[in-house]
Amino acid sequence: MAALTKMTAVEAKLFLRDPGAPITVLGIPLALLLVFGLMPDSRNPDPKFGGHAPLTSLIAPMSVTILLAMLALTLFPTAIATYREKGVLKRLSASPVPPTRLLTAQLLVNLVAAVLVVLLIVGVGRLALGVALPGNPGGFALSIVLGTVSLFSVGLLVAALAPTGRAAGGIGAAAFFPMLALGGVWVPKEALPSFLQGVADVLPLGATLNSLRETWNGNAPGVVQLVAMAVFAVVGIALAARFFRWE
Question: Which residues, listed in sequence order, are joined to residue 52 by a DSSP beta bridge?
């Protein structure tokens, strides 16, 4: 446990020393929330969103989801693949500290960053913009947990397959941007063609976003969304364990 704590502290310092990572993780979600939240009609009820304000029904959940997806699909797999590329994982395999501890430390750093920024988004949204707190906190927490696990399982699979950090970044982006388009980020799910609305509820990013939208509005998360997130989590972790290489 002491070795894991020290390694996690080192990974946290490296994460914070990289100016791009904190700015990306903190800046993009908060910028989305504040820029769209300051638009004139964002806090007015809109029939297109079931009588809820777009800020609560779409923008705040979207900020949280994009944060989780950036950490899971780009930053985390790129860091792990870079360690493989530079031989760090191989050297650890010959030391008393197993490489799995580095993987665990990286996961912990990213998960702590996700929790802190989610709390910051909710807090800033509430204090600065008057965003209502999630109406179904239990469902919101469940959606956050399942969404995080499902997205990080995809990121772990990317880390397992990518030979280099640059390749991991490319594969992660190739997964990230189509899921933005099909998951209801670029175009809200309600505005997608009917045959794509089902796709938005089963892809990990879309399932997370639309489940958070429902629970933020006080509704129960969709069963299809919860099942999709759970299935992606199980399949992604199983495939990552099958194909992951330390060298």
Answer: 46
Q: What is the pTM of this model?
A: 0.89
CA 217 to centroid of chain Cα atoms: 20
pLDDT at residue 65, as a whole number: 92
Instruction: Compute CA distances 83 → 87, 159, 170, whole Å.
Output: 6, 10, 16
Query: 57-60, long-range: CB within 8 Å, 24+ apart, which pairs?
Result: 57/213, 57/216, 57/217, 58/188, 58/213, 59/32, 59/33, 60/33, 60/121, 60/122, 60/125, 60/131, 60/216
Number of domain units in the chain: 1
* Residue 181: other Cβ atoms inside 10 A: 15
What letter represents residue 1's amino acid?
M
Determine the pLDDT at residue 96. Answer: 66
| Spatial distance between the Cα atoms of 174 and 162, rounded to a whole number of angstroms | 13
Instruction: Please report the pLDDT score of residue 174 as a whole number.
Output: 92
Which structural domain range is residue 212 located in?
2-243
